[in-house]
Amino acid sequence: MTFKLKDNYYNCKNSMSMPWVESPFFHEILGSADITDNLVRSAVDYNRDGYLIIDLNLSDDFIESINKDVISIVESQDYVGQEKYEYTDHRRLFQAWKKSENVRELTKHPKIVNTLKFLYDRDPFAFSTINFTNPTSQPLHSDSIHFNSYPKGWMVGVWVAFEDCTKDNGTLRVVKGSHKWKEYDYNDINIPHPDTRVDGEKSSYRDYDQFIRRLVKTKDVEEVSVNLKKGQAIIWTSNLLHGGTEVEDNNVSRKSQAIHYFFHGCKKYYTPMFSEPMMGKYAEKWCTEDQNIFTYKE
What we know:
It is a single chain. With 298 residues, the chain is α+β, with helices and mostly antiparallel strands. 26% of the residues lie in helices and 18% in strands. A 6-stranded antiparallel beta sheet has the order 1-9-6-11-3-2.
């Protein structure tokens, strides 16, 4: 049987298993699309840089309601943290959407959802929230080490600023274009599986931190601090290197919320740092197309 190459790579967003915004035929597909100049610029920026900034026009009352919910949960000590991924004394609040309807509501914001639908041409669903009160000083990393899909690439991160964020209070820093680099997991770097060593989850991740530092240094690229106004959000691709800018005073305020999304149509949604895909072993995420933050019912 002779394989016949598809003739629609240049104009069909679904001609490959990867998102069209990361396709090698991106510019041809974009050129054949009937969209506004603003959407064209957004797609080009996202394809080139790996991230996009949008304005959500959030009301001060809504932002304050989330901040109050976060404080209430933290003070109650009834919250989930991940100290093994902490780099300051300030705890990050994971999965607050389970206790705060306001946090959950933000994951469904129409501007976020519609932007993701445009960029990926699939329906997104949220599966994770992290709320912050202060800077994290987190080293550069790729979300693809934490969350991934099969086929790859169908995961994005969104970070919403609840106050003006600059390098002075620990805004996000990124390496523009790094989403086009090779995607690395623990197997590529010869990092032991976390289950095979003492305090493995933290130890293996610190090894990963060191690898990324050396990778950025050897590629001789610059980090960019992304300034956000209150109510703005940054969307980034699964493999973009990003982290928190280091600040002199970790006690300064940096109220914000991160949200992670998968997209419909994947065969698996999994955690790479606990998986061995070449051996067919996947640590699958709790979420599915039918079970996620959007569909959750108590």
